[in-house]
Structure prediction request, 663 residues.
Amino acid sequence: MRLEPRPASSVAASILWPAGAILATVVFSSLLVMIAGASPLTVFWLVLKGAAGSQFAALETLTRATPLIFTGLAVAVAFRAKLWNIGAEAQLYLGAVMTVVIGTGAVTLPSAGLIPLIMIAAMLTGALALLGPAVLKTKFGVDEVVTTLLLNFIVLLFVSMLLEGPLKDPTGLGWPQSKRVIADAQLPRLIKGKRLHFGFILAIISAIVVWVIMKKTTLGYEMRAVGHNAEAARFAGIPVNRVIVKTALLSGGLAALAGFSEVAGLKGNLTLDLSPGYGYTGIVVAMLAMLNPLGVIAAAIFVAGIFVGADAMSRSANVPSYIAEVMVATSLLTMVAAIMLMRYRVRWR
Amino acid sequence: MNEALEILFTASFWVAAIRIASPLIFATMGELICERAGVLNLGIEGIMVAGAFTGWFTVYMGGDLWTGVLVAALTGAMFGLLHGFLTVPLGLSQHVTGIGITLLASSLTYFTYRILLPEVSSPPKIEPFQPFAVPVLSDIPVLGPTLFNQTPLTYLAYFTVAAVAFVFYRTPVGVAVRAVGENPSAVEAQGISVTAVRIGAVMVGSALMAIGGAFLTMSAFNSFFFEMINGRGWIAIALVVFGSWRPGKALIGAILFAAFDAYQVRLQQITGGVIPYQIFLMMPFVLSIVALVVVARRATYPKALMIPYQKGER
Prediction:
């Protein structure tokens, strides 16, 4: 078999293949649910109800989507320039560290000054974390996939060290956790008494800003050109290495905002379980959104819904909540295949 | 300071180094085969998780140890088939697909674990592979007890390196595998299917990765834990680059790396908590990055690595 580019984009193909991807994901997860001894219809209904069936459920989904929007944007920006940043997890944690360093009382300012200060500092930290791999890539030709992956482990150990050392909360009964951020460093809740916080609004704003950068600025054009064909871009006079470094700074900064928003908006302090893999899930979010910054919002809410819904479901039905991870991973693989088949058709011989 | 040096002269240190190296040798050879055929396999981390579980579970259910190894290998080969199908004929991004395979393989494993063992609080144990002193060879002074008083799976790791090197450089199959990673259209011109060779290489490579995972549950330890692979797959990818895509060099890299890892554990005990333990745990990962930087300038990638092949295109 071989693939042939479609001469014109086919409406049928752009509906049928993604629909097929969703169907394949549903069929595969139904099989697993049946193996677990439950009825797929009941389980999917419970997941849907748990994700969007009540005000509580819907708000919980949006709360869970917030960090995923940030990490999804970080990945979308980087992948667009073919900078394979698999280290959003590390950048997220470093953003969280900076939030705690400044926000627990070291700097006292009114909210309107303190929060932007923390955001900028967090973004810089995350940006620096990806600057390393980006420079190693451009100067030495070291593959950034491996360096960013390895950095995830290094940073998590570094955070663990901080939480048992300088950042440890002395009143934390020995648990490795930081002090809580002061009131002026906290992001307000959007609805009184609910968990959804201002970080969600910041995430939406970030998505719009990133969309403008990608579509309307020279940098965005250059990033797309480098991602499309680095050799041709270099030939056309685009400073490829500088574009890669700028992309890295933007991507790392966005991922760091996920850590900032989780600490300042939701958790209040830093622990080692701040992120259950939001950095990795950001890759799925970005791919489902076909690297479109605005699409990231929808994809993040979709993925968050699966996680929140599956958590609720596993409490009532006897199916492990790991089904959510399986569904998300399966949808990633089926969707990238569907996107390819939208653009190319299969020729046998 | 002397104490720190003395570690290097104890037999137990080198025995541990070889033990730590064994899963890395399997994983590194597996990744090396994939990459020499032109396919980056970032599914490695998840495939190791899956192999660690299925091999161990087979034995837990009453299978014998070698059946467990075989089941682990088959598990790996199945994920390899999926990765190969998506990246070779469909030509999907090898990065994204590989990460997807890792997410899928590890989440499927955790899901299955929860279904099969719903009530356990501490993971059940199996009777793992025991060390076996090879007659004659284990009597060689110094080297003998280190290299030849290990478990049979470690011997399988040595054999794998020799087999990979032999197949690569002495057989037509090896020539074909290397050629699809360098110049696929020349292979196609010989009437050999690039797709078939690449998918086959990814399946064999993934089977080895899974055996590497199974080494942890069936030889190094005796039960399955979440997070037990802990980045070993990613380190194997770094070791392939460090070894310039050559089996022998990659073997040396894996042993050096493992020796360093074994050393840091012992150094940690000597320093007695003056330096935070996390610093020591970080060292293997830092070392991998340093190694990559050192060799990066003279690294010669397989020319067709990460380039999908389309018949009839040049």
Observations:
- Chain A has a mean pLDDT of 94.
- The radius of gyration of chain A is 21 Å.
- Chain A is about 70% helix and 0% strand.
